[in-house]
Each structure stands twice: as C-alpha cells, then as structure tokens.
Amino acid sequence: MPPYTWRSLVARVRHLWRSSLQLRTVAITVFLSTIAVTIISGYMSISIATNLYEARKSQAIAEARQATVSVQELFDSSVTSNGTIDVETVSVTAATTIRSVASSPGGTQFAILRTPGQTTQVVMTPSNTSGLDVTVISDELRGQVSQERGLLYTQAVSLQNEASDDPGLVVGSVFEVPTAGQYELYLVYNVRDVQQTLDFVQQTLVIGSLLLVATIGLVTYLVTRLAINPVRVAAETAEKLADGQLEERIPVKGQDVIATLARSFNRMADSLQRQITQLAALSRVQQRFVSDVSHELRTPLTTIRLAGDVLYEQRDQFSPTTARTAELLRAQVDRFEVMLADLLEMSRYDAGAVELDTEPTNLVRLVEESLEAIRPLADEKGCELRLVAPGGYFEAEVESRRIRRILQNLLGNAVDHGEGKPIVVYVDSDSEAVAIAVRDFGVGMDAAQLERVFDRFWRADPSRQRTTGGTGLGLAIATEDAQLHGGKIDVWSVPGEGTCFRLTLPREPGAVVDHSPIDLPPVDPLDVVALEAAGGDDDA
Amino acid sequence: MDARILVVDDDAAIAEMIGIVLRGEGFEPHFSYDGPAAIEAFAAVKPDLVLLDLMLPGMDGIEVCTRIRESSGTPIIMLTAKSDSTDVVRGLESGADDYVVKPFNPKELVARIRTRLRPAATSEVERLPIGDLVIDVTGHEVTRGGSPISLTPLEFDLLLALAMKPNQVFTREMLLEQVWGYHYKADTRLVNVHVQRLRAKVEQDPDNPSIVMTVRGVGYRAGAAR
To answer: What is the pLDDT of residue B129?
Structure first.
C-alpha cells in the first residue's frame, strides 16, 4: 500500500498545484524571496563580521604599538648612569605598564619572550600573564616578528578555555632590552565578545530573514486573495450561468479593472439571459402554435374524414365518376392526415417539446409485431420477410411507440425500394447497446442520394410509386426518435445491391453509444439471404 | 329502443357529421354545444353514452365529465385533438371511460361506442367473490358486507374481468382487449387510471390494495376471496 499512498499524495499535491493559482503564486513568491533574503543576509553577515574583526584588530594593533613604545621607553629610561639595568625589576614594571595600556575588553594577556639565538651579557626571564598558554603563539609568528623590528604582526588563534575554544588575536612586536638583547612582546586578545556580537547579529539576521519571508508569503497570500477572489467569483458565476442559473451576477464594487470585468461579465450575462428567455418564449409560442394548429385543424379534418368515409361507404350507389371521386377523397384525406401528424411531430421536435416515456420493451417482439404489420404490403410486393435475431431478448427501456414508428418507416422504405426481393431484419445486442438493422436487396442509392437521405421532404425517386404514403418526413422523424433515445440511425447503400438502415440504441437510457452490435451492412453467418437474393435475381 | 347518445362539441359541423354517422349505425344522437348546455341535456335526455369534446366554451370537457360522474356512471368517451398531452390523463382521471383522438374514422368511433354499450360479459355463476366483496353478476351490483358500492359500468366490467379468473394475472394489454375492446396495441394509461379509480372505490386502503392486486412488471390480478 505505501507506494500507492505515496503516489496518491504526490498526485494530490500535483493536482492542488495545478488547480490553485493562489498556491502557485504564494509558493513561487516565497521561494524567490527566500533566495533573495538569503543572499542579502549572507552578505550582511559577512560584511558585519569583517568590519567587527577589522575594528578589533586595528584597536589591538594600536594598543600593541602603544604598549611596545611604552615598554621600550620604560626599559630605555631604566638604564642607570653606569649603564646597568635591573632587567627583572623593570620587567615587572613593564608588565604593569602593558596592562595599563592594553585595556581593551576580553581580558588581554601578554607574553614577553626572548628572541632566540642571541648571546648577551644579561638574560631577562621571559614572562607572561598567568593562564596564558604560550603555545598559541606559533613559531611561525615568532619567526616573522623577530625578523622585522618595529613591525607588528597579527595572527588569529584559537584560545583554549575550560568551556570552549574562544577566538583570539595575537599581536606581536619586538623591543630592545638594554644589555639583554631583543625581546618579543605578544599581546593576546580574547575576541569572544566579538564572536558573541557576531553570533547575535547572525541570529538576528536569520530570525529577521525568516520573519521577512513569512511576511512576504502572508502579504502575497493576502494580495493574491484580493486579486484572485474576484476572478474566482467570476469563474464560479460563469459556471453557474453555464449550468442554466441565468439569474447569477457578479457583485460590482468600485471602479477598478475587476469591477470593469464584473460589469462586462454582467452585461454579457444580461444579454445571454435576454436571448435565452426570448428563445424560450419563442419555443413556448411555437409549442402553443403547434397545439392550436393541432386542435384547429383536426376538428374540420375529422369532419371531412367522417364525410369522406360516409360517402366512400355508399359509393356503390353513385355513378362511376362520383364513386371514384369518393375514393380519391378518402385516399387523399388519409394522406393529409398522415402528413399533418408527421408535420406536427416534426414541429414538436423542433420546439423541443418532446419527452421520452419509456417502458420495458422486448425489441425482438416489437420487431416481430412490426413485421406482421407490414406483411400484407410485403406479400403484395412479393417481398419475403426474414428475421435474424441472435440477441435483443431483454426488456429494453424504450418508448415502444417511437421505436415501432421507426421500424414501420424503415420496413416501409425497404418494401417500397426492395424490388420484391427478401427483406432481412437483424436484431442483436451486446453489453452496452442493442441494434436493429433492416436490409433490402433492392435498387440501393448512390453517394449523392445517401447524403440527402435523412433530409426533410426528400424522396429518393419522386416518380416512384409509393405504397406506404410517405410524406418525406419519415426518416427525419425516425432520426429524431432515435436521438431522443440517445441512439442513432446509420445507413449503408450500394446501387443495385440494396440498402441497410441500422438503428442503434443504448441499453441504458442516456448512455452514449459509440459502436453497434451489428455490422453495416450486417454479415449473415450463412449468407443464405444474399445467395438467395442473387438467385432470385437470375430467375427474374 | 335505439341507444341515445349525447354528442357534446362546440363545432356544429363535426357534431352534425357525427350525428349522421351515428344515425346511419342506428343510434339516436342528441347535441349540445357548450358545457352548461351539456349538463342540462344530460339530465333531460338521460343518454346511454356521452361523446364529449375536451375543449368546450363555458365549461371545459374535464369539468363536464366530473359533473356527470358525480351523479351517474353513464359511459363517457372523450373526443380529443391532443393524444400526447396530459389532457387525456386528466380526462380519464375525471371519469371518462375511453377516448378517441381526432381525426378518427367512423368505424373506429362506432367500435368504441359499441364496446361501451354492449352488455357486460355473461357468466354462468350469478355471484362472484373477490377479496371481501361479492359481485352480483346479473344484478350489476357489488356489495361489501351487504352494503352496495357504486361503480360505473366500466369499473364493474374491469372488476368482473378480474374476478372471473381469480388465478389469472392480467396484463394491461389483456385488460385493454377484454374490457375496452381494443384488439391492437392501445394506451395503457387507460388501464392505469381506471385501476386507480376502481381502487379508490373498492379498497379499504387504496395504498395497500387487497382486491385489485398489482403484479409488478406484469399487470393485475384479483385479490383472494375471503
């Protein structure tokens, strides 16, 4: 599990990073300002340290120079008139002098060492303050100091203490003890206080830097919040608008660019709402119109229909001309009725006033019923009707009235254009979709015709005698019916080989179908039909 | 005696034409052209059946239907121009037995009228039990514990159809054929609405029916006789 958790954590962070503009802005700002603050405080720290050290060093050198001069004077003046000197006594006095001169903080210690390699009549005992570890004065320094008279040499050293190693500074110079030769004076400064000051400064810098970065982060957060919030509100409002909440608006505050954005956005929303409301009103008017036309036309049509039928029933008593008139009247009233129904249906679809009213329906049974309904017409034309149904034996959630209407249309077309050859209906289903294909082996259509086959009021061959009394709206309505179910109608056709219309519906209402359980054109496992059709053609 | 049929339609032409068709079939048509007149004519003519247009001036067909049902179980067939609207359901719920969609042809209309006027199915037995009810087949009466329940002829037919075959589960299509006389696929809302109306009259607790039982996914059957 851990890898998954880790991965999911990474994924979550990545998602957050990508989705939050604010997080990104704050993070980048904090990162960049951390780098800047680190560089600045690093520079400050180094320069402060250097300055402090240099100041201390120059102070130490000044003191050392003073001390050296004083000691030299002391020794020079201590020479008696007979040219002798009590070096040991003077040495003690010198120690006092040095102490009085070198009084800087840090507990100055000193050492007076004899420059090695001299032979004099008197030798002064080297002395040093107690507690000074003379070994801190390196031979290297001593070498340098003893070489050049009058010059001061400094060296940074580490002073051993009980508690810790303190940084120290050793300043060395030489002086001449009469009769006793050259001696070296070393002043050893403990610069712990400088180090402490430096530590304190650095600590302050670090804390200050952290606080600064935190402040920058906070400020960035607040500022971006200030700037992004209106954008977020705008985004949310746009989302709501898109979801159909047309009343949503962005509150307008002030005169700034955000307010301008809000104002233009609101203006856009206003215009959108106006147009949608207008369209909705138009749609309502359209629906109302459909409904009114429906009622207003249907009542007189019913009267005509009844009258026509009454006349038709009595046509035996009429003269042949009148009888034929009655027949024509009846037939055309029928046709008019179908057309009106189709037009109203189409109009309902155009008005978006169609709702699906599904019930569990066995599609194979529905196909069988539709085949029975078309059989008289097919027999008349000499078309054999076949059903190949490897699947589809389940209760599909469809509106059977609409599916039946689609089937009647497809079967009617197949009979009309089937040239008396067999018509095969395939039904099959898979886990996602169910399909019905109606295949005829008739005249077929060329590419130009195929392109227009679903167009309203389009007929493949206007001169062709039709038996199913089409209005030219049949396939357009069928397409709408299929789309209402979330399905579609495809067509395949080759001139001389026939046509196949395939209806594909999703098993679950509202699901998306991107494939069909039946190939187009369907492949009959036995291909009996195609063979028979070919044979039938030869016979004819 | 010819069956009297009250034709209620505000369009005089269609009313006259329906009258011609009905007379041709041996019925005796009477006419009224608006809602209030229809109520009056109903009381005066005492028709055997009412053909009622849903869209009427003055008082709409739904209300006329409701008013007639308050006092009578006379079969009512609605004439409607809208097959898909809620008007049909509202009409059925207000007590219409059946409906015909304009434009209709004379045969269709006459077939619907004859179905509603034909005598109820005859049965060899005179009394049939269903649930805690007793159907007096010849007397056209339904009683619970001796007190009669008033049903329209259609509701009586529906109940009788179920009671005659107590072991049979009826699909809506079977009931449409047997009770309404439809031999092809018809509107199952007819069955649904009338079962609701029947239950409202005969069930002690219409939400928990014991006489007209629902068989989920199939249809209805009679409750066991007690």
So the answer is: 83
Residue type, A460: A
- Residue A241 tokens read as 């608008």
Distance CA B112, CA A536 (A): 46
**Strand (E) or helix (H) holding A433:** strand A433-440
Q: Do the chains contact at B104 and A305, CB–CB below 8 Å?
A: yes
| Residue type (1 letter), A45 | S
- ipTM comes to 0.81
Cβ neighbours of A410 (radius 10 Å): 29
Please report residues of A whose CB lies closer than 8 A to that of B188. 359
Q: What angle do CA B163, B167, B168 make, to 5 degrees?
A: 85
CA-angle at B71, arms to B68 and B77, nearest 5°: 35
SS3 content of chain A, % helix, strand, coil (to 5): 55, 15, 25
Q: Given this model, what pLDDT does residue A540 score?
A: 35
Q: What is the pLDDT of residues A413-436, one digit of tens each?
A: 888 888 888 899 999 888 888 999
Domain A355-539: CATH superfamily, name plus number: Histidine kinase-like ATPase, C-terminal domain (3.30.565.10)
Beta bridge partners of B213: B221
Rounded to 5 degrees, what are φ and ψ at B41?
-60, -35
Selected residues 227-286 of chain A with any CB under 8 Å from a CB in chain B = none
**CATH code for the structural domain at A258-349:** 1.10.287.130
Stated pTM of the model: 0.56
Calculate the CA B66 to chain-centre distance.
13
- Name the token pair of A252: 């307008």
Residue A465, amino acid: Q
How deeply is B72 buried, as exposed, middle or buried, from its count of CB atoms within 10 A (0-12, 13-18, 19+)? middle
Q: Cα separation of A299 and B9, whole Å?
A: 10
Hey, of B14, B172, B216, which one would you mutate to test binding to chain A, going by the most A CBs within 10 A of its CB?
Answer: B14
Structural domains of chain B in order of their starting residue, each with its CATH number = 4-117 (3.40.50.2300), 127-222 (1.10.10.10)
pLDDT of B102-136, one tens digit each?
888 888 899 899 988 876 666 667 788 888 888 88
Q: How far is A229 from chain B (nearest CA, A)?
A: 48
